From TrEMBL:
The keyword 4Fe-4S does not apply. One of its GO terms (cellular component) is plasma membrane. The chain crosses the membrane at residues 12-36, 48-68, 80-99, 105-126, 138-160, 166-188, 200-220, 226-246, 267-288, 294-317, 329-347, 359-383, 395-416, 436-455. PROSITE patterns: MFS. The keyword Transmembrane helix applies. It comes from Streptomyces luteolifulvus. InterPro entries: EmrB-like (IPR004638), MFS (IPR011701), MFS_dom (IPR020846), MFS_trans_sf (IPR036259). This is MFS transporter. Keywords: Antibiotic resistance, Cell membrane, Membrane, Transmembrane, Transmembrane helix, Transport.
Amino acid sequence: MPDVRLASPQGKWILLTTVLGSSMAMLDSTVVNVALPRIGRDLDASLAALQWTVNAYMVTLAGLILLGGSLGDRYGRRKVFVVGVIWFAAASLLCGLAPNAGVLIAARALQGVGGALLTPGSLALIQASFHPDDRGRAVGLWSGFGGVGAAVGPFLGGWLVDGPGWRWVFLLNVPLALVCAPIAVRHVPESADDTRHGRFDVLGATLGALSLALVTYALIEAREGSLVVAVTAVAGLVAAVAFVHVERHTPDPMMPLDIFASRQFTAVNLVTLGVYAAFGGFFFLAALQLQVAVGWSALAAGTALLPTTVLMLLFSARSGEIGERIGPRIPLTVGPLLCAAGMLLMLRVGPGASYVSDVLPALLILGLGMVILVAPLTATVLGSVDTSRAGLASGINNAAARAAGLIAVAALPLLAGMGPEAYRSPSAFDEAFGRAMVLCAVLLVAASVLAFATVRRLPPDCRRPECRTFGSISAPPLEGERPRGRIG
């Protein structure tokens, strides 16, 4: 049984290193959007290259995050976490030194691999290290500090872009890793799950990531209408079918398909796809809109987006408590509708927009909707399956949210009619941004209707979320497996 107490010096070191590790990945998921216009100008990149700057990271992260958690359980959670931190830092250094858009995109894909190793490992280390009496408080502090990091991200990104330059958005991860990895090696006990046997589902993970990459490429390049795009789209669908086939027949699947026998689990993941597709598209385009069309600096744009994260950080725990009392159906119905209203209010944000009268009301309503929605969504995912599979269910839901975000970043500019050079023209971008916000609102309304029709009250004995405070806007909280196996 893990026996580290939170008040001990070792407990504080464990909390510090896990917060630093998770913050590296969480910061990059929010900071990069603010830097995109400057990256585009400095590297003479097209809109498609900017989309890939975001999506190359998301493809490998979403495709490999379930495998990353399994590797930690088998070979040692500390070992895999440290490898993830070092990998992420090395890829970040390559991002910061990238001479052109192609190298940057490749380095971002490598970053995603590191993120897939350290993101699940961060929470797993806390759950496997702390005494059961302290585990809940340790997870609360970890998720709270992580939320603070997410809130600081857009502001920090804007300051770096306007000051030292966008390359420091990535280079900042190197000193964080130099602090994080040695602390983990020295102070975090190793742990593993001795009950885990069988082969890793490397083929399933590869097919999943390949399918996402091919479909994303086809959507981003669809404006060309070439034979290559058509072939890539078909290949992406074939890879998706092959992924399902492998998961159905392999002895140890990364994503056991029988978990979708729960109708509520299936329904809430469809709700997740709609909601996080809208969120991913919104935060990608909003950071561009505020700089390209409104004319604000990167710092002003990053600071402007803070209210949504701050509201989630302050009130997500309270929202979870209310959801437990009234059930998830009302929050999962009302939350997306409020988010849709916030995105429609963004139609007022264009050249000459005022922050107080135009931007802030939209972000406050959007943030309120996210507060109402995110915690009950996580609780519904965990409560829809057997308690023993809650960690797996959370991982699938987290991966689904990230996949939805990357597909939205690929598809929304195409559906909204953004050309390859749209971000260089304030008027063209503003017009397309309005169409994109309407599409995001439609996705959210559809998710609300689906939730109202399918979500039911959870059984009283289901597992409840441990991450009560949360501030990330890229994916719902990742809940780990209950710790099993050796601690050494």
